Amino acid sequence: MADNAENGSPTQPGPEMGGPQANEHLNIKVTDNNNEVFFKIKRSTKLEKLMTAFCERQGKTLASVRFLFEGQRVQPTDTPDTLEMQDGDTLEVHQEQVGGC
Amino acid sequence: MPGQAAPTPRTTRKSRGLRFLTDSCLGDSDQVSRRRSSGTPTRATNFTRALSTSTWADPGTPAPRARLAQPSPLSATSALEADSEEQQQAATPSPSLPSVVRRPLYPPPVVLPPATPYAHGPLPSSSSPLEHPRVTAIRIRRRIASPRTPSRFNRYITKFIDATPSISPARAPKSPGSETRLFKQRREQEGEEKFARELWILLRNDSYMRGCWCGPPNIFNSRDEAEAAVGHLRFYLAGSVDKKFRVLQKKDDFRWHCNCGNKEYHAVYQNLVNSNGKRPAEDSEIDLISQNQDSKRGKSIDRAIPAPTESTSDEEEQPQAPAIIPAESSKPAQSMWAQACGIVSRAVVTMGSPLVTLLGTLREQLRGDAYEILDSRRQNTGNGTITVKRMKRQAPLPATEQPASEVEDDGFDNLVWTDDPTKRIGFENLQRLADIFVSQSESVKNNTITLGQSIAAIRLEIQEGQDLSTSIAVHQYREHMFGPMSAEDSDDKQAKQWTDTMEEYLGKLGLCINFLQRVYDRDRLEELKGKYATPPRHLPLGSPTFRLCAGMVGRFLTFIRSLQTVSNIDTPTLEAISQMIVDANAVHKQELLPSFVEQKLELTESMPGYFPEDKASAIEEIPADDFEFQRLYDHRFPEPETSDWPSQVGPGYFRLVPKRKGILKPSKEWHAPASPGYVATPEKTKKLSFINPVHKFIPPTHIPSKIMTPEEAARIVGPKFQADIVRDEHSIRVFEATRTVDRDGHPLLENEDRFSLDALERDDKEMGLTYLAKKYDGFINDVQDEMEKRAEEDKENRTKTSLKLTPRRRIVQMPYPRFPSTPEMRQRRAHLCADVASSPAASSPGINPLMSRKTEEQPPKPIQKKPGPSSLEDFFAQDNDLDLQLDISTRKFEQLQIDRQIKDEVESAALRSAEDKRKREEEEALREQEWRLEEQRRRREEERRREQEAQRQREEERRREQEAQRQRDAEEFAALTGLRAPTRPLITPLSSDWNLRVSNATNANSQTELAKTLEGQPLTRRDFEEKLLPPTAWLNDNVIIGSILHIADYVNKAKGATDQEPQCAAFTSYFWPRLLSHGAGGCGRLLRRAGVRKANLLDIDTILIPICEQSHWTLAVIRPGKRTVTHVDSMRGGHGDESVKTKLLELVRFILEDQFVEADWKAVDYEGPRQTNGWDCGVFTITNAMCMALGLNPRFTYTERQLTLQRRRLAAMLLNEGFKGDFSLDGF
């Protein structure tokens, strides 16, 4: 995780920028503490696809889960590019936060 | 002993109906049988001679073979009287009243068992013919039920009204002399204890059988109580330790012991009273009886009803037809309705019969066969004119004797052998039949018959000396054998047919004669009697060949009977033939012949007014035409019941039925769900078991499970008392029955219908109904008679004395003593008399006005007649005069009374006034005291109120001071934290436009993206409808994050700051969990996105961090400008969690690194509105964030109540996508 944080740091985006074109596909791990699912997607693919696939697989609705990349919420319209994701990065799946009392 | 027990015959009774019945029932069976058998002398028969048989009895035999069906009334009565006299002379040679008694009123005396006979039940039936206990039991009751003495009813009524003892002690002396000699004698004779008990049981039985509400007679606890009570007979317990049952009589008390007078018998019981197989006729049936009186006994009721059958061909009826109406009306007991019915029906028949005859003729003509209508009775054959009696059909089993217990009661037990086998059919009828058979056979033998093609031809060709009826019969028989004659047949064949027919006919006639001889034979019957004591169900009579022949006879006789359509056969013969068919049928099937048996004759059957009860009878009566001769084989093996349907079903009736489809499909197979978590529920093998054994919960026996109510206790106490005292079986049984109760707590008596025969018999046994009634009935009746007589005498005496002594009695009744004879009183009396005598109007007003009025009212007559005495001596001399003395004494007494009354009144008035005065004073004193107390109380209360007011003022001052202090503090705090009160309300109602938009949002398509947060997260209907707008909805992260980002965005925009150099930075709610899990080092990306760096942190005004922990939204705030960190928790009223603040300081330290000066930073708490519900924390969090971002003090900005509106505002703001336009936060 610490690697991811290092990789994702904005201090070294330069050398990485050429990467996306180089390797079109990247493996992304999606985990919700119990299950780990690996997806291989294009850099330009919207993550919505991944999210719905994961939800279908786990029997959950998209509205009730939150995908986080390094603590940041992932929107359906995001792509690995916009999130500056690397190969092997992890998406964490959290439950929707609800509170009242 | 017999002399003592002999009841005194009484001649005063008028209604003897029941007693007569009783006597006849109780009478010797010899007597009854003699009465029954006393008929006309036997008649000689020439029937036997005609048949020239040796088996018939000698006509000279004096044995009563034939007898009248009903004995003539004269002979019956005379026989009865003769019997009675015999009996009387033999049993009760009473010397006292021999000449008066014409017949005994009581059964002959029976030697009584010595001790407690009722315990043993009635006498054994062998010694005395007491077959019907209910008959004797009713004998006492008769007296109360019959309205003979109206005076007694009055007495009962009065007694019912005043049940308290009203007899003055003077009239009911306590001496034993109050009992009659009869009573005392009987008591001495029986013994006191036994007498009392038996008498009590007798009276109890009486009331019990009457079903009377008043119950058995009372039993008093002591003699004194009994003396004080009412009733002619009183039962009591004598002795203090060992209670002895006693009875006493009160000669002068004319109330019978029982409370209820006019009580009808129970209807059911009444039915059973005479049930010797009979029931009493009802009113509507009396007419029928009177009509039916001279008809043959044993016929059914139907025959008594006047039916339109009288205009038959019976010769003796026809000439009477016009004279019917006067003849009928001369019968006294015929009702109008029956008369009318008879007239109408007869008229119809008379008018209709020519028509019917005509119709019949026409029908015959149309058939082409000119039969003459010879017998007009044919019209009525279907009317049931001829009935035959046959035995009820037995199961078609071989003739083995079945034990009687297996067979249900079919009436065979009521059958006895008859004396005379010819009785049923009638001797003359049999004789006539035999004559017919013999003459016909002779005709056939001598060939004096005419042969013809048809009956009409025979009638035409008949010659002198030929036998017409036999000719017709033979003709018919030929048709019966060979079918109708046809012209094609050759003469030879016809001749052979005729020969065969005549042979056959002759043979059958011989069989019939043989049957007559052998069956209706007394000797044969005697043999059977010797063989079988009672008539058996199956009777193999004669040899099998004979029985076979009997079947032929039956069939032949059926044929003969069928001749009635073409020939004239008179009714008695027809009836005899029908009966004979039945007999032949019975012989053929080895059944009992109806002619051999008869019903057991009941004793009262011959009495007018009784109908046979509906008993199971072995003999049934059916119309003769309905009786069909049945072959033995058909009888033994009857064909099974066949219905039309199966016989019609042939192969053609079957058709293919297509297999049903479409309605019920086989159920679809459902596969088990593929989920790996699916595991079938294991079957539970564990069973429930008691931790403690059950018997521990059963209550111990010594604790009653239910407390008895007084009513329930009373239900037990009475029977227990009686069972203890009386100790007869019935009482004990009733008491035992109280041990088990039904649901309502009533004793469970096993037999509710106590008028059923079984119950009656049992009761008779238990209660000694018959025995006691027989023993004491006469005695009780005598006692009652004496009582009545004395009552009447007493009444007469009373009327006499009341005429004489009215004034004296009035004085005697006064509760005061007679006049005191002191000198003063005498003087006063004399003075008063003088006053009255001198001037009645001007009596002294000094005494009292009331008295003067009294004296005025006195009739002045006697006073004028007797002038006042001149002196005292004269006055006393007049004392001898009774009238004046009475008059004076009356008036004097009244004056004295009035004086006393006035004195009493005055005294009481004085007393009352004194009392009043005292009371008034007391009351006044009391009131004064009360007033004083009231004054004190009021003063004390006022003081207290003053004190309270002072205290309140002090408190108010204190509060004001505190308020001021708080305000000062707040100002100081504001100065410290930079939080201030808003210049205008933060939460205001929405415009209608925005309201509409919010409402639309809740109705939008669930997939529609209604708004987008700054983060890029789309907001859908779910977020608004489910997570924000309902007042109790819990807010979700979308709403919280969206709102807080908008706040930060607004502040930055308002202050002209950029995203990377913000004045207000905001994190998502996922920052905090990442901070906790990854540490501040893992949040670089988020910090970067929020624009928080080491360089610009201290320039940032506010950093907002929403936290969702354990379903609770809170807000962490860092205000680098003020160097404070805080945590706002709405549940704690703004105060925060210390650990959160520590974590925040760590975060700040991580960001600032070496620029972090620990002394500058502090964790502070802001006071804010407190959340009191369980759903608003999200809204609190957002609103607090607004306040922090704007530098407002939340405490002065909003209240909890506004938050429902705030939800709507937030929804509108989110739809608006930011605090802009209508939601601008400018100017707070």
UniProtKB/TrEMBL annotation, chain A:
Residues 1-25 are annotated as: Disordered. Signal peptide: none annotated. Pfam families: Rad60-SLD. It comes from the Eukaryota. Residues 24-100 form the Ubiquitin-like domain. PROSITE patterns: UBIQUITIN_2. Gene3D superfamilies: Phosphatidylinositol 3-kinase Catalytic Subunit, Chain A, domain 1. Residues 1-11 have a biased composition (Polar residues). This is Ubiquitin-like protein. It comes from Parathielavia hyrcaniae.
UniProtKB/TrEMBL annotation, chain B:
GO terms for molecular function: deSUMOylase activity. Residues 1-102, 167-189, 289-320, 788-875, 909-975 are annotated as: Disordered. One of its GO terms (cellular component) is nucleus. It comes from the Eukaryota. Keywords: Hydrolase, Protease, Thiol protease. It comes from Parathielavia hyrcaniae. This is Ubiquitin-like protease family profile domain-containing protein. Residues 38-56 have a biased composition (Polar residues). Residues 788-799, 913-971 have a biased composition (Basic and acidic residues). Residues 1017-1188 form the Ubiquitin-like protease family profile domain. Pfam families: Peptidase_C48. Coiled coil: none annotated.
